[in-house]
Specification:
Length: 253
């Protein structure tokens, strides 16, 4: 098992507890085994590890750890706060199918008292990769995109029309749009050794540092997103402190 935290903000939503016989607790806290009860839960990773491996039929993702959330059922005994300690093995490509198993407990959200538990549970699951889509726009900033920028990537300007078309289509369908921004300064970090323009006097990608760009004929915040695809109110903007979009950031928040 790798030490990587399962930091992707994926919600395991509406996974059914079907055909599950649970042990419920009466008011006197004596355990009683009941008939099969059904419920649905939504849970988020709390302390989860993951690793991937290649098999003959594709790529597999193994997930192990604790999930927490809520469960609802027509039977009140199976409704409340959920803690699920689970193992999952998923064929993420190409099938999106796998298994999910482990013990769980359900407690009263008001009192914290345990209402139901099961020592073992196993179910098949399917992942719909398009169930909750989002678009991530990575580092389309003035100091990368504008003509004459310290870290100019001329090819990035050519992608602006494609960005505009994609964002328009996503917004029309209420698909979330997330932006990332690389932010440097004012404190020196190791990345300055690789990109000296991050240091003064250039101050590349410093928040609030104004730079004149010839292609727009005015000064702009050098770390800001380019105006052509500027975020709309409510769009999340993730500041990060390395060039990669999945580490050295505040994306967990």
């Amino acid at each position: 098992m790798s030490g990587a935290r399962f930091a992707v903000s994926v919600i395991l939503s509406v996974l059914a507890i079907l055909g599950t016989q649970v042990r419920t607790h009466a008011a006197d806290d004596r355990p009683r085994t009941n008939a099969v009860l059904d419920g649905q839960f939504a849970a988020q990773p709390v302390n989860v590890m993951q690793r991937t491996c290649e098999g003959e039929d594709g790529t597999y993702l193994e997930i192990r750890g604790t999930f927490a959330g809520t469960v609802t059922s027509s039977d009140d005994r199976l409704s409340g706060d959920l803690e699920l300690r689970a193992d999952a093995l998923i064929n993420v490509s190409p099938k999106g199918l796998g298994t999910f198993q482990g013990p769980f407990e359900i407690s009263d959200p008001m009192t914290g008292k345990r209402k139901a538990r099961r020592a073992s549970w196993r179910s098949s699951m399917a992942i719909d990769r398009l169930a909750h889509p989002a678009v991530v726009v990575v580092d389309m900033q003035n100091d990368f995109v504008r003509v004459g920028a310290p870290l100019e990537v001329a090819e990035a300007r050519a992608t602006i029309p494609a960005h505009q078309a994609l964002l328009a289509a996503c917004r029309a369908r209420a698909i979330p749009v997330i932006y990332t921004k690389f932010v440097a300064g004012p404190e020196r970090t190791l990345i300055w050794e690789w990109s000296p323009v991050l240091a003064p006097p250039v101050c590349c990608c410093w928040k609030g540092f104004l730079r004149h760009y010839e292609d727009v004929g005015k000064e702009l915040d050098c770390s800001d997103i380019v105006n052509e695809i500027y975020p709309e109110p409510g769009d999340p903007i993730v500041d990060k402190f390395g060039y990669g979009a999945a580490s050295a950031s505040d994306q967990d928040e």
